[in-house]
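Q: Predict the assembly, please.
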Amino acid sequence: MTSNKRRRLLALCASFGLASCAKQESTTPKSPGAGLSMRPYGDRSPFEKTLRGARESTKSIGVGSSRTPLHELYGTITPSSLHFERHHAGVPVIDPAQHRLLIHGMVDAPVSFSMDDLRRLPSITRPYFIECSGNGGGELAGNAGADASRSHGLLSNSEWTGVKLSTLLSAAKMQSGASWVIAEGADACRMARSIPIPKAMDDALIVYAQNGEAIRPEQGYPLRLLLPGWEGNASIKWLHRLHVASEPAMSNQETAHYTDLHPTGKASIFSFEMEASSVITRPSGSQKLAGAGFHEISGLAWSGRGKVAKVEVSTDGGKAWQAAVLDEPVMSKAVVRFRLPWQWDGQATVILSRCVDETGYVQPTREQILADRGPNSTYHYNGIKSWKVEADGSVKNV
Amino acid sequence: MFEALLLSTLLSQTVTGRPASAEEIRKFDITVFPDGKGLPAGKGTAAAGKEIYKAKCAECHNEKGEGRDQQYPRLVGGVGSLTSPKPVKTVGSYWPHATTVWDTIFRAMPYETPRTLKPDEVYAVTALLLHWNGIISETFELNEKTLPQVKMPNRDGFIPDARPYQKLKK
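A: Predicted assembly structure:
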């Protein structure tokens, strides 16, 4: 059968809802060349269409964000092609052979590393989430997202490989009095953030790999800072300079933006940690349950302060809560998947999830957050997310 | 612990990375601190900044820093709005340090051609924005000495992060 005829037959099967016919046809090729053959760099099945939702925020190309389609993914690792993005001046093209990382300022031995230099050093591989502190900003503002991508999609989780920042700072011999390091990217706007030295010497990484291969251009190729558990904006991409100092630079990003305004008119500055949060991704907004009976409720939970200790799920609008299963291993400052079996009686209801981390911190409600820091704090929203399951099985944001 | 000790010994002996020269550092170092450290010599006034602003900034930020199409940031006004239901965060109402204005313009603006403005031009445009916000006069000369001394209206508007708002277990 020619491929044209095959396609027509498949289309015919699909239009009549003959799933079994289509399935048999697609899984039993009539010729060896009809399927996917060996390729030097693989791609997903042409039947898979999941995409990031992307948005340019100005007419100047390069300022904007794209969101991970959390509600269409499985497990905990975000495919690199679907990692969320937030850029302030586009994605630079950087030749790794030319790229260097300069460490200077309050150090006795200013040093410049090539990518090869960095790859020679002892490496660490770990999963960590990166979450934009603007994630959930719409929920705070009362413009809740219709699906989990729009509500929580500025969150992704990858396996990162790189060098401990403490290794590099030790090599440069920091002087006494050094208390901040200003990290700068090689993007057009030279985005910069000031990082306290205790974090730099704790678990901060300089990473060159993501999910087993070189990090993607959108994630900072060839080199980025990774600050586990802290707001994504501070994990500077396209990292090319580390300036050790006794004070923060008070850069644009850490003053004009990424500060949390309170109703008093004062704003919290250097609010880095991402607090415990969770979201049910199945069933979630824009999905539809096929009918009453068994369904697994499943979602993602994370905390910037350490390990997730417990996730509780309610299927009756928050009256009763049950502990969900956490899929092992539960890793510090990484996303964990939670699951709970559910017999749906076919009645309309509201489902919610609540994360508790190892410090005892309990994910708050939106009302608690509004009471703590008001409606204009913009960043670090981590309120309990609820979804309404209608009697017809459709799931909507509430 | 043993690994850390071994590593520090090895690293002190291993040549990884090369010493960075003073010239290399000078070329890359554009950090400006609130006390003025890092500012290059130069000067400018609001009066001198008008033509530069018109040519290089107004397309996005509008004629007098009012922003455009709710897309490009408003740079002027908003003082007194931070406690209102709709806070307007601008250079005048929100930014705590004048050095950040200079640094932002120098490192990141104009958006399409960043780092093409000369230090004098950056001082001039910074002076214009501060003048439009009623912070300095039209003839006040901004330079590497006077800029860090400018007190911004919201200089004391920032507080340390007080989270978590709930008690954690020890």
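The CA atoms of residues 106 and 117 of chain B lie 7 Å apart. The helical segments of chain B are 2-13, 22-28, 46-56, 58-61, 98-108, 119-132.
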